[in-house]
Amino acid sequence: MTAAEASLREQVRAAIAATGTSQAAIARQLEITQKHLSHMLTGRATLTLTWAERILDAINMWVEVAIYAQEQQ
């Protein structure tokens, strides 16, 4: 897993926690199992940018992508 993927997972999990919404409620809204949602959030299943957007939309949040230049060494 890349650092970007890990960061996306971490930020989606933090957003869910901040709203106090249960994974079960989000999964019902997205018409997936809570187990599959959990797997996406823990890295046992792929969390695509599209899925991250859908999950965050379920809790009235959105994804914003930023691109940065690497520092020269």
Task: Please outline the helices and strands.
Layout: H1 3-19, H2 23-30, H3 34-42, H4 49-58
Helix pairs in contact: 1-4, 2-3
Short note summarizing the structure:
By secondary structure, this protein is mostly helical. It has 4 helices and no strands.
How does this structure look, described?
The mean pLDDT is 96. By secondary structure, the chain is mainly α. The chain is built from four helices and no strands.
What is the average per-residue confidence, as pLDDT, rounded to a whole number?
96
Q: Please provide the ordered H/E string of secondary-structure elements.
A: HHHH
Structural class: mainly alpha
What is the overall shape?
A: elongated
What are the low-pLDDT stretches, counting only 5+ consecutive residues below 50? none
| Spatial separation of the terminal alpha carbons | 24 Å
Quote the beta fraction.
under 5%
Descriptive terms for the model:
73 residues, mainly alpha
